[in-house]
UniProtKB/TrEMBL annotation:
The chain crosses the membrane at residues 6-30, 37-61, 73-93, 105-125, 161-184, 204-226, 269-290, 297-318, 324-343, 369-391, 403-423, 444-463. Keywords: Cell membrane, Membrane, NAD, Oxidoreductase, Quinone, Translocase, Transmembrane, Transmembrane helix, Transport, Ubiquinone. NDH-1 shuttles electrons from NADH, via FMN and iron-sulfur (Fe-S) centers, to quinones in the respiratory chain. The immediate electron acceptor for the enzyme in this species is believed to be ubiquinone. Couples the redox reaction to proton translocation (for every two electrons transferred, four hydrogen ions are translocated across the cytoplasmic membrane), and thus conserves the redox energy in a proton gradient. It comes from Sphingobium nicotianae. It holds the Pfam family Proton_antipo_M. Residues 125-418 form the NADH:quinone oxidoreductase/Mrp antiporter transmembrane domain. One of its GO terms (molecular function) is NADH dehydrogenase (quinone) (non-electrogenic) activity. Its EC number is 7.1.1.-. The gene is nuoN. NCBIfam families: NDH_I_N (TIGR01770), PRK05777.1-3 (NF004440). This is NADH-quinone oxidoreductase subunit N. NDH-1 is composed of 14 different subunits. Subunits NuoA, H, J, K, L, M, N constitute the membrane sector of the complex.
Amino acid sequence: MMDTAVLVSVLPEILLTVAGLVLMMVAAYAGDAAARIVSWLSVASLALAGATLACPAVHAGGPIFDGLYSADAFSAFAKALIFAAAAACILVAPRFFDGEGGLRAEYPILILFACVGMSMMVSAIDFLTLYVGLELNSLAAYVLASFMRKDVRSAEAGLKYFVLGALASGILLYGMSLLYGFAGTTQFAGVAVALKDGLGAGELFGLVFILSGLAFKISAVPFHMWTPDVYEGAPTPVTAFFASAPKVAALGLTTRVAIVALGTAGHSWQQIIIFMALASILLGAVAAINQPNIKRLLAYSSINNIGFALIGLAPGTAEGVAAVLSYLAIYVVMTIGSFVCVLQMRDKDGKPVESIASLAGLSQTRPGLAAAFAIFMFSLAGIPPLFGFWAKFLVFDAAVAEGMTGLAAIGIASSVIGAFYYLRIVKTIYFDAPAEGFAEARSPIDYGIMTLCAAVIVLGYLLNPLLGSASAAAAASLF
């Protein structure tokens, strides 16, 4: 008979699974007429699942299910970010889909099931659990990318994501099978013991294949190719979701694999992580410069930001992991805020507008929206005293503390290149001749989320003691 404490440890996943199944039945019988009710109940489910993270059994329960799953502070921190980002992406969706034929009741349900998969990903301490969680998240994501069936771009985005995602899953599975063959176990702890005596050719190939598969999920170079097309083609609320919650889950998963499973082979995986970090930063900075579409630009921005986060992972220290977690927390706020601003870009007929040129003179027609855009762009660029600067400082500081001064120096120099395209948007908003104004939006929820995110970015340093202690405790649970 299963211990009650074990069930409590997986309470967030149980709650979201039950909520998803119940709401799916509601959607099946009531149809799209119940879409808004289903959305609000989904947000309530995410809030309830988030509240359970405060339970000691959930954030300090340790390994359960014979070493398949770990309920610890690291997974609890990541889940809190995932649930918050998912809830925001559900809340901002109705107004967007109203102009595209109405919100479908399946949208929030797919996000709930994706969250179950992501929860399993960040708690996985066995490659089997890792893969099940990854695929559960991916299957929901493929449908979300192609959610607007009559939109050619959305269908194309879903197809590209599915084909390339299947390829990445195959690469990941092959790497897992290689490590299993040489280590004799799929558990992270067992793999770490097997790698302790050095890497053979087969184990090295397994390590490379696993990190390659995970690089696709975090859209790190050279496995980033799907990101701009999928971000541009998918509905904007879905793009906001892809850029936030799955990024947290995938980078959290990569961090746990690197530290727990591959920790004893640190020198080998550190070289791969350093390459992915620098390549992602440079490509994300350079490729975004001439992008005319705001969603494509933010796609390259996400690649760029993943590169910075990987700088914190490269040292393989508790301080570095804490820096990665803090970076992710700040990145989620900046990303959600930026995409809520993009959702306000609509012409007089209410159709979404995505060109950067349409932002010209926005400060004269919509000063509040212009100020929010400027705050998020300056923060993404790492301009002090906004909170985005602190995120970059933490990862650079962790790298320097471990003697990786050259890595930090290249990262700092590259961040100057990346700042160019963020500042170009601010210049367009404040100094270019006004373009045709956007339609006035009367959405208290959108404005509320945008204002909250902007306030966190401006006043975030007041949260430093809380964020610092939470990320440090989460990182310590891996070591």
